[in-house]
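Researcher: Good morning. I'm working through a list of sequences from a screen, and I'd like to move beyond sequence-only analysis. For each chain I'm collecting a predicted structure so we can compare shapes side by side. This is the next one on the list. No need for commentary yet; just the structure.
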Amino acid sequence: MSSQHGQQLAAQSGCQAFPKRIAVFFYGSFIRCEVMARGGLRPDRIEVARLNGFDIHVSPHACLSQSDRHAVYGVLVWATHAELDTLYSMDGVGRFLPEAVIVQTPAGTLQPAICYIPLTCGDKPADPDYLDALLNAARGYGFPAWYLERLESFYPAAQPV
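Model: Good morning. Structure tokens for this chain:
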């Protein structure tokens, strides 16, 4: 069925065909509004969220691995599949695969979401400029002090905090 035909059927049935928005959890570059906007995503709502059962690594950019001892802070946004395709096809963005997760908001609400995780974590030191930008955004969202300390721990030894 063509997209146009589907829209005609939706109009005839009284249904409105809106692009479906899905919950997405971002933890790295995409927590920054200017990076989201560069990819065409301007979410109506951004909510801080916590992903339990994962740990963050910055090597040289953010990467997640499963861990029963850690949690990762990030933001929850709602986006269309087309917006996500655009974001993850931008120059400089590596290969990520979507994974279903459940995040927790500060109010304690559990929210199913998609989280894009790279196939492998790098083995290089953190990029200090990347880490500076990530920490600035994390502070702006009010992420907890222990999590900010976790991010700061990725600075190369010569980098002042």
